[in-house]
Amino acid sequence: MARIDIFDFPDELFYDRKEHLWIRPMGDGVVTLGIDAGGQDALGDVVYLQLGEAGRRVASGEAVGTIEAEKMVRPLIAPVSGTLREVNTALAAAPRAINKDPYGSWLYRIETSHWESEKARFVHGAVAVSAWVGEEIESHRKP
Hints:
The chain is built from 5 helices and 12 strands. It is of the alpha+beta class. It has one domain: CATH 2.40.50.100. The longest helix has 16 residues, at 126-141.
């Protein structure tokens, strides 16, 4: 696991730099998605989640829900194309769990339609993740 500043980033995950989502390949083209430690810290306390419905086809870059936190309200963007196979309704009922356990608090499971080509856009591996998060932290420290 990469520990950068105060944030942990498990090595086996892929990370969407722009949306601060983690992606865990589950096999058979299915991935699980959640918000990474840096993303949940930037949001502050999560107070509300509106998640899309299972069975819906989504395109990479498409809004699939909304997250409301103390610092902002923003859409949840699908990092991959495919079908929403499972939606974490328990998390929607208790969204503050994201702040306590970002890697145990998943949002969606998506059956991907283009994982092999789409995964190249994401950060993966301790060295790449450390470089990315280090740059993010530095950019936020600059006045």
